[in-house]
Amino acid sequence: MTNRYFTILLLLLIVSFIPATTAAQSEAECNPIQETEICIQEVNLSKTTVEVGNRTELSLSVQNAGNQTGDAAVLLGIRQPEGGYDHYRVEEIHNLESGDTQTVTIPLPFSEPVGVHELNVMIFDQVEQHLYDSSGYYQKVTVEQGDSSFNPVGWFISLGTIAQSALAIISLIIFALTGKLVRS
């Protein structure tokens, strides 16, 4: 009887994670302005964990999906571990022809505070009045102290929703198996 309740509880737990992982955060749509539509194609980080004073590199591919040549400004929003926000104009893109794609690499140095910094890449027109596209706060960089100590909380937070869900499910399965073995 307890095995049936445990199975039902495990199924409910697994099902509860599925909507959270599939509806985590939708991407912003790419919005045209006067026949120019510069959209984010891909955003990658060279490292997702850095020590204080070190850097990672942000690689960004953008495409002009519009009908006219256009210019754009790349802004980077950083949500700090304590909840504050910083915004920087990190790159300018000039004369991107219709249908062309351009990749830029931006060095990102990190200092204090330690913790998880969430990055949002935004593409604006040159005067920063029209938002073409935004990645949302998808990219995360964990900044650690220079010593080699391991911070399990920061590591767990930096995993992302899907990995956190998988780790929780694996932990529950291990707990269930070891609990069953102890009772036998």
From the coordinates shown, what is the CATH architecture?
A: Sandwich
Shape label: elongated
The low-confidence parts are: 9-13, 15-27
Rg, rounded, reads 21 Å
- Biggest beta-sheet profile: 6 strands, mixed
Q: How many domain units?
A: 1
The amount of helix comes to: 25-40%
What does this protein look like?
- By secondary structure, the protein is α+β, with helices and mostly antiparallel strands.
- The protein has one domain (29-168): Immunoglobulin-like (Sandwich), CATH 2.60.40.
- 28% of the residues lie in helices and 39% in strands.
- The strands form 2 sheets. Strands 2, 4, 5, 7, 8 and 9 form a 6-stranded mixed beta sheet that branches. Strands 1-3-6 form a 3-stranded antiparallel beta sheet, with no helix packed on it.
- Residues 9-13 and 15-27 have low confidence and may be disordered.
Write the layout of secondary structure elements.
Layout: H1 2-22, E1 38-45, E2 49-51, E3 55-64, E4 70-79, E5 85-96, E6 101-109, E7 115-124, E8 131-134, E9 139-144, H2 152-158, H3 161-183
Parallel strand pairs: 2-9
Antiparallel strand pairs: 1-3, 3-6, 4-5, 4-7, 7-8, 7-9
Helix pairs in contact: 1-3
Question: What are the key terms here?
Answer:
6-stranded mixed sheet; Immunoglobulin-like; single chain; elongated
Task: Please provide a brief summary of the model.
The protein is α+β, with helices and mostly antiparallel strands and 184 residues long.
